[in-house]
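Changelog note: in this version the structure field was regenerated for every chain. One regenerated record is shown below for reference.
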Amino acid sequence: MGKGLPKRSEDYSLWYNELVKRADLAENSPVRGCMVIKPYGYSIWEKMQAEIDRMFKETGHSNAYFPLFIPKSYLSKEADHVEGFAKECAVVTHYRLKNDENGNGVVVDPDAKLEEELIVRPTSETVIWSTYKNWIQSYRDLPVLVNQWANVVRWEMRTRLFLRTAEFLWQEGHTAHATKKEAIAESIQMMEVYARFAEQFMAMPVVRGIKSESERFAGAVETYCIEALMQDGKALQAGTSHFLGQNFAKAFDVKFTSKEGKLEHVWGTSWGVSTRLMGALIMAHSDDQGLVLPPKLAPIQVVIVPIYRGEEQLEVIREKASGIIADLRAKGVSVKFDDRDAFKPGYKFAEWELKGVPVRLAMGPKDLENNSVEIARRDTGVKEIFSLEGSISEKVETLLEDIQSSIYSKALVFRDEKTTPVDSYDEFKQMLDEKGGFISAHWDGTAETEEKIKQETKATIRCMIFNGDDEEGTCIYSGKPSARRVLFARAY
């Protein structure tokens, strides 16, 4: 299964694309730029979704659903927002088809033109804030803490499975508050929720940061983010949380009567993560043999592969394995007993290695004689013989915990080794080309300098580290005074 998988060191992009397909995560659809998420890939997304949703509800948020279609006039109400998304919108102009009179299939019925075109949502701020106008009248109606799980469409020209597709799955939170302080606190809280999920479940270390003005979400006053580093040294924006100020409240006239009896515009936030996290999970941990999944997100945490000749041996192994399976499931561990008779054990080993199952147990006649089992861990490939005189469920539990923490530690060491402070533009360019990763450098705070560095090096400002220490210095490009270092990187 894993043989012939391209090596990361030779062609990282090809390795990624092939791994997504061979591990049965996703495939390209008949519609350019869209994807079919296959059952194994979707089961990983479901586990992500379940944990994130739980964290949202623990912070007081509720789920709702809003329309897929947005009247075109709505996007015109917030100038920065429409400018930011105008080039990515899919537009519905007609509502009916008809048979072609010349027998060439179906055509658009010219008599079925919509009075106002509808935009397939690229994000839902406009339609949600138009709804909030009806929901909010008084300070008693606040805060509104709503999240939506949905699909969105952004008409991307260059696509890659999970990382950038024309249609993708995500969640988008949209909240309304009585004060600026509350809204900023909400934005920061949700950035922290994303960071905790990335680190505790994805085993992926992230940098908490604030975007530069040019990288800010269209229509936001401030964008908070988490940035991760992939194994090829490129950064990936893994989640964003936006303080919207009163921009959308003013655009849609969303006001409330305060405790003092004054009529004021509310303060807003929005925040989201998407199936791009699937791409991050793959690129942060996987190797030349296939996926390496953190146990907390693995659809199958343990696979048991019987090694046998004939149905009689299989039945004996199955009976022995049934007790192990029951004990593991009682502890909440997901287990698969792979008794498919059309494939040999070696094929099964390679398949489950490719699919990133954290722990593999192998049981054959000799193991039964010795009352033991072979245990192999996916992240290191280390194997050991474990006596079933001991508690296999406790052993596996401990092993899964160790794999989860070891994967995170490995990624953290990699990120730290790939984070380099520089003090000159020549050193900046050298480190980008030779080492990659995050480059910590002084910037004069101007969009002009930021754009010139991007044009010359393809590196962008990923973020200003949240609560990072201010350190005055000199901009590496312009030589002008700089108030702090920022993180640059080439990115997805």
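Spot check on this record: The two ends are 28 Å apart (CA to CA). The first strand starts at residue 26 and ends at 28.
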